[in-house]
Design brief:
The chain has 5 helices and 8 strands; from the N terminus they run βαββααββαβββα. It has 195 residues and is an alpha+beta fold. A hairpin with an 8-residue loop joins strand 6 and strand 7.
């Protein structure tokens, strides 16, 4: 099954609006054919996220272990510092709320003994979340490359503007939560070129 790559990078001496950065990211996307999207973080403007779809987890790992990795990613390494990557099974990029002006990317760490309670709370709260974020998709995924015995959920919600997403129903069902709101760098560049 295809897997979504979610990668967080920190900018190095370049502004998120610098077209050289977007050109470098677009070149990598064209080479790898991952249908990647590039997002800038609202809370921490020096962070960006890459969301890309791989045929499977092995395909991404094979690329990272290959000599082609340095050739493809090398040109952007002076602009970007790698922070982390996680993967989750995803049927298609269209399942994500990519058309939203702002996406909340949420990572939740869940202990073994709280997985069922978390899943129940999410199921119970799902309709409220879908209504609150309408007309944008809600994507709830489980990390497929977590360490044995660890569980991590990823939640992607779309918003008209940065929202303070409520997780009241899930409180106590996770060990930690990290939420970043992001905006589409390519859409912003396209809008800027039309003004």
């Amino acid at each position: 099954m295809p897997v979504l790559e979610v990668t967080q990078l920190r900018l190095r001496g370049v502004d998120v609006t610098d077209l050289r950065l977007l050109d470098a990211l677009s070149t990598v996307r064209s080479t790898l054919k991952t249908n990647s999207r590039f997002y800038a973080c609202i809370e921490e403007p020096d962070l960006i996220y890459i969301l890309g779809l791989w045929p499977d987890l092995d395909a991404h790992h094979a690329f990272l272990a290959s000599p082609a990795r340095d050739e493809v990613l090398g040109p952007q390494e002076d602009m970007l510092e790698f922070r982390w990557t996680v993967h989750a099974e995803l049927d298609a990029m269209s399942s994500l709320p990519l058309d939203a002006p702002v996406i909340a990317i949420t990572r939740l760490s869940i202990s073994d003994d709280a997985v069922d309670a978390y899943h129940g709370a999410l199921t119970e709260d799902r309709y409220t979340l879908i209504e609150a974020t309408r007309p944008f998709n809600v994507a709830h995924l489980w990390r497929c490359d977590a360490e044995p015995g660890r569980h991590e959920a990823l939640l992607f919600t779309g918003w008209e503007m940065r929202a303070s997403t409520a997780y009241a129903a899930m409180r106590g069902k996770y060990d930690s939560i990290h939420v970043h709101h992001v905006w589409n760098m390519e859409a912003a560049a396209a809008n800027k070129s039309h003004t």
